[in-house]
């Protein structure tokens, strides 16, 4: 799937001025949440990202994320449609290193997104998450050959792709019910409102400060 069809170019353009995490990592976070939650509106995403201590998203990026989440939930709810799900990665015209690092980011994002959903998991799901964490822990220098090359990458990609497919049929909850944000006061301000009033964001809660961290394999 090329970059135009996959949405890679659209995401790259929309998030060009937002560099907190890669677009693959954010797509993974969105997917992890959407295996457990109903798709929120733009304000819901703004509140969640604020609680994760991300910088405010540009309006086009927030709209794109919201629409992509709605499409992802719709796709994953249907067992047949779910098998067509694909992580947001650059196509094979990009260097293998770039694609491996994007997959690593997507895996870490999914772990974070699903992690904040507070869902109970089966032994089989736990094993899948443990293996996904190994993908998120890949260490590779830019000038270093990826062991196994393209064949190994495709194997890891297919495994990662099937994680949300396998998680997709669980009963979903409202985003506002997550413990991460459920304690917010009813009149809590959105990121846009805070930004307009010059209110600074609070520090990242240690329990969710896991984006871009390598865990031992």
Overview of this structure, please?
The protein has a single domain, classed as YgfB uncharacterised protein family PF03695 (Four Helix Bundle (Hemerythrin (Met), subunit A)). The chain starts with a helix and ends in a 21-residue tail after the last helix. Mean pLDDT is 83; it is low at 184-195 and 199-217. It is built from 11 helices and no strands. With 217 residues, it is mainly alpha-helical. The longest helix has 20 residues, at 96-115.
List key phrases describing it.
single chain; 217 residues; mainly alpha; Four Helix Bundle (Hemerythrin (Met), subunit A); 11 helices; globular; disordered C terminus; YgfB-like_sf; UPF0149 family protein
Give the structure's gist in a few sentences:
It holds the Pfam family UPF0149. The chain has about 220 residues and is mainly α.
Query: For this structure, what is the CATH homologous superfamily?
Result: YgfB uncharacterised protein family PF03695
- Please count the beta strands (DSSP E, at least 2 residues each): 0
Q: How helical, in percent, are the residues?
A: 40-55%
Largest sheet: none
Give start-end ranges of low-pLDDT stretches. Answer: 184-195, 199-217
What does the overall shape look like?
A: globular
- How many structural domains? 1
Percentage beta strand = under 5%
Assign the CATH class. Mainly Alpha
> Total helix count?
11
Family: Belongs to the UPF0149 family.
Protein name: UPF0149 family protein
InterPro entries: YgfB-like, YgfB-like_sf
């Amino acid at each position: 799937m090329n970059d135009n069809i996959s949405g890679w170019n659209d995401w790259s353009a929309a998030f060009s001025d937002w560099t907190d995490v890669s677009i693959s990592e954010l797509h993974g976070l969105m997917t992890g949440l959407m295996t457990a939650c109903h798709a929120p509106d733009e304000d819901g995403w703004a509140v969640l990202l604020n609680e994760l201590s991300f910088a405010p998203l540009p309006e086009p990026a927030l709209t794109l994320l919201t629409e992509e989440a709605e499409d992802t939930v719709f796709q994953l709810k249907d067992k047949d449609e779910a098998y067509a799900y694909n992580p947001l990665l650059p196509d094979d015209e990009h260097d293998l290193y770039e694609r491996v690092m994007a997959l690593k980011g997507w895996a870490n994002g999914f772990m974070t997104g699903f992690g904040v959903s507070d869902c109970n998991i089966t032994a089989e799901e736990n094993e899948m998450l443990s293996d996904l964490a190994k993908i998120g822990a890949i260490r590779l220098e830019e000038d270093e050959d990826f062991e196994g090359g393209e064949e190994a990458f495709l194997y890891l990609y297919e495994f990662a792709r099937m994680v949300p497919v396998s998680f997709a049929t669980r009963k979903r909850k409202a985003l506002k019910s997550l413990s991460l944000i459920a304690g917010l006061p009813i009149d809590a301000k959105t990121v846009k409102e805070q930004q307009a009033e010059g209110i600074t964001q609070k520090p990242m809660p240690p329990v969710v400060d896991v984006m871009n961290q390598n865990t031992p394999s």
